Amino acid sequence: MPPTHEVTNQVPPLVGHDVAAHASLIAGLRREGAAWVEPELHELGRLAGSARAQEWGRGANANPPVLRTHDRYGNRIDEVDFHPYWHELMTVGVEHGLQGAAWRDDRSGAHVARAAKFFVWSQVEAGHTCPLAMTYAAIPALRHNKELAERYEPLLAAKIYDYGLREPSTKRGLIAGMSMTEKQGGSDVRANTTTATPSADGTYVIRGHKWFTSAPMSDMFLTLAQAPGGLSCFLLPRVLPDGARNAIHLQRLKDKLGNKSNASSEIEYDDAIGWLVGEEGRGVPTIIEMVNNTRLDCVIGSAAGMRAGVMQAVHHASHRSAFGKRLVDQPLMANVLADLTVEAEAALVVMLRLAGATDRDETAFRRLALAVTKYWVCKRAPMHAAEALECLGGNGYVEESGMPMLYREAPLPSIWEGSGNVAVLDALRAMARQPESVEAFFGEVELAAGADARLDRSIELLRKDLSDLNDIEFRARRLVESMALVLQGSLLVRHGNPAVADAFCASRLGEDWGIALGTLPSGVDSREIITSSWTEPR
Fold it and tell me: Which residues make Cβ contacts (< 8 Å) with residue 442, sequence separation at least 6?
């Protein structure tokens, strides 16, 4: 080849590494009582870092699912065909218990262990984690009907991926979905018009539509419908006990910005059969348990995306040279990489704390802290992905880098399970209706009292702001942002790398925080921040 075709100063693929080789992740596992999962986590991490798994993620997104409403003879079948790589991803996720297994694991730290595995495996591909998250979240909601829980919980928790359209009790493992929103209401689920008519045999006949149902290939769905006693929660299997297909018709698949590997659909209930979960008229409180648990996975997914972005950005900067030295050694790039790392580490530490709260049943703290964190961490993910992509320059804008897929996925967790305003208003609702949640929140953040003057000042200002109820709904985003930053700062000061904690407090809680990432103030130890969370692939 002529000399002009010699390829130099290009970055090798980021493959062949252990995604779980992450110091603060492992430290968090041990702190939250889940050290026992480390061998499995590293096994999963090595698979996640392999070329094979990364090809599964690429292929599943390059070949989106296809809806088949009818067979060749004109019979209604309502099936979705997935690329084989989707099933590879799902098999690994289920076999490692990312669906409902944690609810039946009596070991200390079971939910933290599951969160860590979800965090590691999500870095391969995010779309397939949606049905895993909904299956995990379905179990506590389903327990409102003891008979249904006894029948299906063992199968929802089983570490067996058994794909196919069959009656649930005949399968070795189940996947569950959730169907709430309608065209006219969206997040205002009380505006739902789907109806549920009681039958003599104790079931209900469900008729209506749902505007956004993800993972329509699931074995069963929790859904909301208007019963005689008010809006209620129901379980609808795709196949009925007699082997007949339930009348759940898939109208079309959504053409989404990202999340291409995962099918999301509009569905029609044409006199489908459902079983009541909980009491009539208590549909929202019943299904909200599922929503709250999927919100935790929104946080984990955003944290995982941030970590993946940091890995790609630092890897690129460590191998690419410009203006006489490596990018990672350029002061301004070091500021950007350190700031990306600080954001990712802050998301990780609060994610693990919330998973630990699930294990320890810290209901009051989790109720408020989860709403606050869901808003902030998920809101930060898109700008983090954009900045990480930009670190790769034009190469990051090319599909082969994997960064466009990460970028398209980033806005989704902030939208699902209640977009930004919904999460913020839910935090206000928690504070008004459950004042013990405010006490628990401040009890947590004040564990770091005296450790950093900037944090102390921020806690004091937050208390003052929360005591002012004037225009509180108008100011809600600013208030919840402050709560999230104080919580992250407290956790980092107590448990994080000192350089990361100092940079977080100097920027997020100080008076010198720029709008863009890469605006850390002078004096932070950018090199220590970058190297502390980075393991160079061997």
Answer: 459, 463
